[in-house]
Amino acid sequence: MRAKVLETYPGLEPYIDDIMPKKEQLDLVKIPDRVSLYCNGSTPLFFQHMDDAMIPHLTIVHKYPWAFKRVRIDRGAIRFVMSGATLMVPGLTSPGGRLPGDEDAGVYDNDGKDLEAGEIVVVEAEGKEHPCLIGVLKMGTKEMKEKKKGVGIENGHYVGDGLWKLDLS
User: Phi/psi of residue 110, each to 5°?
Assistant: First the structure.
């Protein structure tokens, strides 16, 4: 499982022993809608829907946000994300949003490479300290910049959802 995590998220390699210690037992919690949640004690680590990719829980993302591919939404999109809505492209392409390749992308630049549909990304919000969502891109960032409309990110885990509120103690 460690190898699978590192293959998907190579930025976590320096921290993998903190996240998944070799001598510790990982627990698998089955939750509704065919979702598997992997935990270390009462700390949620990763979740997976059926055979989809393993996605880190926001507790991991908040500890190591720089280890993931990131984008930023504008202030106007925050309330929609926090209510569980699908993230639409205008929230990413408006003046407050940031995508790889933008002139002022900064930490969102991804070494100048565009992100492709199907990649897992962390979504940070303009003016906020911690990421608010992690999800799967439905279209590549190059296409987002060209079209400026449509569904940007789906299947997200966001602050305040059922997975966030799940009590594992």
Answer: 55, 40
